Amino acid sequence: MEMGEIVIQNVNQVYHNVNQGDFNALSDINLHLCKGESLAIEGESGSGKSTLARLLIGIEKPTSGKILLDGEDITCWNYRTWKQHRKKIQAVFQDSSGTLNPARSAYANVEEALVNLTDKKRAERKKHILDLMDAVHMDYGLLETPVRQLSGGEQRRLSLLRAIAVEPDYLIMDEVTSGLDLISADAVLTLVENFVKLSGSSCIFITHSRKDAMRIANRIIIMREGRIAEQGYLIDELSILMGHGLHETDLEDSSRRCIGREYASVYGRLWSE
């Protein structure tokens, strides 16, 4: 196994309920994510995709099976081991309460991660944070605002900003555009696109939107009732669509063309500095 790979082997997750009996949230999940690959996981609510994300970052342990990260079985890691790998793997969920301190300001939340997980100096940290806030359409006026006073969408963008700021090897995102307006969602997707392209990091993008999946990922799995129902490469779907007379430009909405170009250089500049 190469560094930068995730391998999921025969993973099952069963929740026990005295009154309702056992519930199989995940059944026989086998998956291989190569170094630098972007994988979309698509499915309806209750299909198991968020459960899988929680297993990948150690919030839950599987009932059975292995999850290998760079060859190490993370199902055996304790809290101390996870803490040592915080820079390596970052996650963004719809509910940001697990990654952000509600009592601290937006700026302090991001700076704390940079202080603990990078060697950036104070001036570098500030510039890095401001550039990323520009990229996700967050007003500088929110910098000193306590997280608890931010809207749900602002908290999610801040959580993504915090995760990307530390330049992880693995980035896991669960419905990061849910509830965002079109302009903010486009800015978020553009930032993720450029981070993935320029960093070489591996990315798992959980979504219910095929359109967003096609924009971020090169491979997709579709989950139904806790199982992988379908999987394949998104380039195949693109080829099918173009075979029906559609051109690649037809698949790009106008907001991606205009706003995407405006922000496409932001993460590129950050990464090259």
Provide keyphrases for this structure.
single chain, 10 strands, six-stranded mixed beta sheet, disordered C terminus, alpha/beta, globular
Explain what this protein looks like in three dimensions.
By secondary structure, the chain is an alpha/beta fold. It has one domain: P-loop containing nucleotide triphosphate hydrolases (Rossmann fold). Helices cover 40% and strands 23% of the residues. It has 9 helices and 10 strands. It has a 6-stranded mixed β-sheet, sandwiched between helices. A 4-stranded antiparallel β-sheet has the order 2-1-4-5, covered by helices on one side. A hairpin with a 7-residue loop joins β1 and β2. α3 (106-117) runs parallel beside α5 and α6 crosses α9. The relative contact order is 0.16. Mean pLDDT is 83; it is low at 238-273.
Q: Walk across the major sheet and give the strand order.
A: 6-7-8-3-9-10
The protein's oligomeric status is single chain
Label the structural class.
Answer: alpha/beta
CATH class: Alpha Beta
- Order of SSEs: EEEHEEHEHHHEHEHEEHH
Overall, the morphology is globular
- Mean pLDDT over the full residue set: 83
Determine the strand fraction and express it as a percent band: 15-25%
Number of strands: 10
Detail the poorly predicted runs.
238-273
Measure the end-to-end span: 31 Å
What's the story with the biggest beta sheet? 6 strands, mixed
What is the count of helical runs? Answer: 9
Number of domains: 1
Task: Identify the CATH architecture.
Answer: 3-Layer(aba) Sandwich
